[in-house]
Backbone:
């Protein structure tokens, strides 16, 4: 599993991507707003945009992290 964290003016966003090779198994995000609320979203793995984003993000994953997911 790979985790991305982003600190935004409105709060903190965390994405999780679980995969083996080029096959996406699960993906989702959680947003923790500065007002104390949070929302969680599971990505639709059949959505072409989700698949495209996953493949694009793979280029930013560290080689050692990628090796652990194969």
Residues:
């Amino acid at each position: 599993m790979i985790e991305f964290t982003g600190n935004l003016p409105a709060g903190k966003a965390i994405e999780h991507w679980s995969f083996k090779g080029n096959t996406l198994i699960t993906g989702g995000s959680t947003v923790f707003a500065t007002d104390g609320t949070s929302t969680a979203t599971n990505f639709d793995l059949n959505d072409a945009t989700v698949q495209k984003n996953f493949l694009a993000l793979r280029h930013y994953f560290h080689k050692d992290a990628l090796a652990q997911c194969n």
Notes: The first strand starts at residue 2 and ends at 8. The longest helix spans residues 48-57.
